[in-house]
Structures are given as structure tokens and as C-alpha cells.
Amino acid sequence: MAGDKPGPEQEVSDEELLRVLALAYKPALGTTEIADRVDLSRQAIDRRMKQLEKIRLVESGKFGSTRAWWLTDDGRRQVSDSELNDPSSQ
Fold it and tell me: 85 Cβ partners below 8 Å, 6+ apart?
């Protein structure tokens, strides 16, 4: 399970987190779903997503006991711009 390994958290860029949301088949993903896709703990994902929410690249909402995250228009533009500027993604 993600984040069950001892030691420091793996480095994951903001762009990678945004890309996970952009490529998801659902319009929003829960914290656990994102954590599983990038192999980070739920706590690390929650912290990082809150940072992205502060700069308005993602938004979130609580649905029952689950927090779901989705891209804002600015977040979509950021993913598009990073895809265009990253030759390895083509």
C-alpha cells in the first residue's frame, strides 16, 4: 500500500499531481486514489493538494468522509502548458 514504506517520501512534482487529475477517467479523485497512483501517503497527498488549492490549481469538496479533488481552469492550463514544454511527454 502507498506510503507504508519507512523512510522519506518520494519526490513527486506538482505537475505530476495535476497530470494525475487531468488523466483520470472521473472528474474528481479522492486523496487515497491520488496517493495510490503516485505512491505517496495519504497524508503527503492531502498536504500537497492543500498547497495546490491555495494557489487555485485544484479545488476540493467533502463527500461523506472522503475529500475529492479536481482541477480548476488554471490547473488545466498548467497541465497543458507543461505538456507542451516537456518533450518527454510527446
Answer: none
